[in-house]
């Protein structure tokens, strides 16, 4: 397992989640259309997936497109969906060859049928891989996910399959789309913004949050390493008292 040079005695976080922010600002600063920022952002995804595997991270979850992003202009959404198609067609074979398992969380009903087919094909192809688990959140919202889990549990209770009094945190976690994936140890947001924007609200209850000033298209291995170094400087107590 690869480790950072200055943290030889420290294991990397098992699960890193990243809010990829700043594509539009990156393009605007260069007098270019937002579509170029998104294209360069896709290259940052490639670098980050490669770096995560090299650093020994087990799970990488990337916030690609939120449920609120559907409010953007039709032109920008079309550009993003076109880029998503391109990524799914171009990258999946390489991910599979590198033993990466691909997963998607989010509302698939709002995605075009051909995109859903590409996602399902990627998930089937890589389902048996035992390396990095790459999860892409698309048309995703944390509140939406929790509400969906609540509906599923309510339906089971109404059908007599479970007793409402037995519903606990474990049952809720199992009803989420991330069931089977450990909660993130580290959440990173790029662009200097300091909020989590409805991303993995349940799962990040005890995640360490690191906010970086770099815009997502410029994000690389050195920034991931910087976030991990900051993670290692934190004392994680999970609500327990200071010793």
UniProtKB/TrEMBL annotation:
Residues where Mg(2+) binds: 21, 208
Annotated EC: 2.5.1.-
Membrane-spanning intervals of the chain: none
Residues that hold substrate according to the record: 22-26, 34, 38, 66-68, 70, 72, 189, 195-197
Cofactor: Mg(2+)
Molecular-function annotations in GO: ditrans,polycis-undecaprenyl-diphosphate synthase [(2E,6E)-farnesyl-diphosphate specific] activity; magnesium ion binding
Domain of life (superkingdom): Bacteria
UniProt keyword rRNA processing present: no
Function according to Swiss-Prot or TrEMBL: Catalyzes the condensation of isopentenyl diphosphate (IPP) with allylic pyrophosphates generating different type of terpenoids.
Subunit (UniProt): Homodimer.
Protein name stated in the entry: Isoprenyl transferase
Record organism: Oceanibaculum indicum P24
């Amino acid at each position: 397992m690869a480790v950072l040079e200055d943290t030889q005695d420290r294991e990397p976080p098992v699960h890193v989640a990243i809010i990829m922010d700043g594509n539009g600002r990156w393009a605007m600063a260069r007098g270019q259309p937002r579509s170029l920022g998104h294209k360069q952002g896709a290259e940052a995804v490639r670098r980050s997936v490669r770096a995560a595997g090299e650093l020994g991270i087990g799970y990488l979850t990337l916030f690609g497109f939120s449920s609120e992003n559907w409010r953007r202009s039709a032109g920008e959404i079309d550009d993003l969906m076109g880029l998503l198609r391109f990524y799914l067609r171009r990258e999946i074979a390489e991910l599979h060859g590198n033993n990466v398992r691909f997963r998607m969380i989010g509302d698939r009903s709002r995605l075009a049928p051909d995109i859903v087919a590409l996602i399902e094909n990627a998930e089937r192809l890589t389902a048996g891989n035992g390396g990095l688990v790459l999860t892409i959140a698309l048309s995703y919202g944390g509140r939406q996910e929790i509400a969906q889990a609540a509906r599923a549990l309510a339906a089971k209770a109404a059908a007599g399959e479970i007793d409402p009094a037995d519903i606990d945190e474990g049952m809720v976690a199992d009803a989420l789309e991330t069931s089977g994936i450990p909660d993130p140890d580290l959440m990173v947001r790029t662009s200097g913004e300091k909020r989590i924007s409805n991303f993995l609200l349940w799962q990040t209850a005890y995640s360490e949050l690191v906010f970086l000033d770099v815009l997502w298209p410029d994000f690389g291995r050195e920034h991931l390493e910087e976030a991990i170094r900051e993670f290692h400087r934190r004392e994680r107590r999970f609500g327990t008292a200071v010793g």
